[in-house]
Amino acid sequence: MASLSRIAEGLKGSRGRVGLTRLNIISYLLLIAGVGLGFGVAAGWHNNRWAIAAGWTQGWVAAMSPQIAQQWERAVVLRLGKYTGLRGPGLFWIIPGIDKVSSWIDQRIITTGFAAEQTLTSDTVPVNVDAVLFWMVYDPEKAALEVQDYKVAVSWAAQTALRDIIGRTPLTILLRGREQIEAQLQELIDERSNPWGVTVQSVEMRDVIIPESLQDAMSREAQAAREKEARIILGQAEVEIAHLFARAASSYEHNPTALHLRAMNILYEGLKEKGALMLVPSTAVESMGLGGLVGAAAMRQQALSQEPAASGSVNGTAAGKGMQGVSKAAASELDRAAQADL
C-alpha cells in the first residue's frame, strides 16, 4: 500500500507538468501590451467593445508564445502532434495553437522509494524489504516518446525487480550480502529502463524485516554459536596451560631447592590473608619437608586470629612476647627445613 501511494503521488506530480504551457514574466508583459493596445484602439473608436476583445485575444495569444525552461529541464515540443525537437534551457518561442509543449523533462538525479512486502525468499521465508532508487533521464526524447509516464514506469520496474531478486535469493545471502543484492538490482532495473532513456545511478536497501519468531530463533542460534566458540577457546587455553605446567615440572625435577622455594611462596600467598584456608596434599608435605613450615604458618595464623581487639599495657606486653615466641618458632622451623634440603 505504501508503494502504491508513492506511485500515485508521483503520477499526480507528473500530470502537473505534462501538457501545460507556463506563463512567465515575458508572457505577462506581452499580455499587458496586448490589452493596452486594445484599450487604446477602443478609445480611438469611441469605446468600441470589439477593439477591447481583440486586444485581450491578441495579448493572450502573445503571452502563450514565450516559454522558459530551467537549466536542468528540457521541453518536448510537438507541432500539430508531431515531434519537432527539444527546447531549453532558457527562453524559447512556440506558435500558439500549432506548437505544444507535451512534457517538461527533469534531468537531475531523482530518488524513488519502493518496497516489497511479504515476499517469499528462495527458502520460503516472508520478508519486507525497503529500498531507494537513484536514477536520472539521459535521453529526454525517449522518456517522452517511448513510455507514457516514465516516473511511474521506473517505480514499477524497480518494485518488480526487487521481488524477482528476493524470490531467487536465500535469507542468509539477503541479510549478509546486501552489496551483491544491490548490484543485481541496479543491473536489472537499468536493463529494463534503458529503452525509456533512463539510467540507474545506484540502489540502496534501507531495511530488511523478517518475522519475530524467526528473529528469536536466529538469536538463539547466534548465542549457541558464541557459547561453542567460548568453550573451544577455554579448551585451547587448558591445553596451553598443561604444556606450560609440563615444562615447569621438568625444570623443577632437577632443582629441589627451587621447588621448595616455590612451595613456600605458594603457602605465603595463600595464608597471608586472614581467614584463608590452604589445602596441601600429604605427599607434598612428606616429599618437600613442609611439616614444620606448615605448622609455623598455622601458629602464626592462629595468633593473628586470637589477638584481642582491646589495647592495654599488660595485654600488649603478653601479646608481644607471644608474637616473638611464634616468630622464633617459625624461624627455627624454616632454618631446619632449609638445612634438611641442603
What does this structure look like?
This protein is of the alpha+beta class and 342 residues long. It has 4 domains: 20-102, no CATH class; 110-210, Band 7 domain (Tetrahydropterin Synthase, Chain A), CATH 3.30.479.30; 213-254; 255-341, no CATH class. The chain contains 12 helices and 8 strands. It has helices at 2-15, 25-44, 49-63, 140-145, 150-167, 171-176, 178-193, 212-253, 256-271, 282-288, 291-305, 313-341, and strands spanning 66-69, 73-79, 82-87, 90-93, 99-106, 110-120, 126-137, 198-209. The strands form 3 sheets. The chain has a 3-stranded antiparallel sheet with strand order 3-2-5. Helix 1 (2-15) packs antiparallel against helix 5 (150-167), helix 2 (25-44) packs antiparallel against helix 3 and helix 11 packs antiparallel against helix 12 (313-341).
Task: Show the helix and strand layout.
Layout: H1 2-15, H2 25-44, H3 49-63, E1 66-69, E2 73-79, E3 82-87, E4 90-93, E5 99-106, E6 110-120, E7 126-137, H4 140-145, H5 150-167, H6 171-176, H7 178-193, E8 198-209, H8 212-253, H9 256-271, H10 282-288, H11 291-305, H12 313-341
Antiparallel strand pairs: 1-4, 2-3, 2-5, 6-7, 7-8
Helix pairs in contact: 1-5, 2-3, 5-7, 9-11, 11-12
Quick overview:
Helix content is 60%, strand content 19%. With 342 residues, it is of the alpha+beta class.
The geometry reads as rod-shaped
Biggest sheet statistics:
3 strands, antiparallel
Low-pLDDT stretches are 1-19, 309-331, 337-342
- Number of E-state strands: 8
Beta-strand proportion: 15-25%
CATH top level assignment of the largest domain:
Alpha Beta
**Given the helix and strand composition, which structural class is it?**
alpha+beta
Number of separate domains: 4
Amino- and carboxy-terminal Cα gap = 92 Å
> Numbering strands along the chain, what is their spatial order in the largest sheet?
3-2-5
Q: How helix-rich are the residues, as a percent range?
A: 55-70%
SSE order, one letter for each helix or strand: HHHEEEEEEEHHHHEHHHHH
CATH level-3 fold name of the largest domain:
Tetrahydropterin Synthase, Chain A
Oligomeric state of the chains? Answer: single chain
Radius of gyration: 47 Å
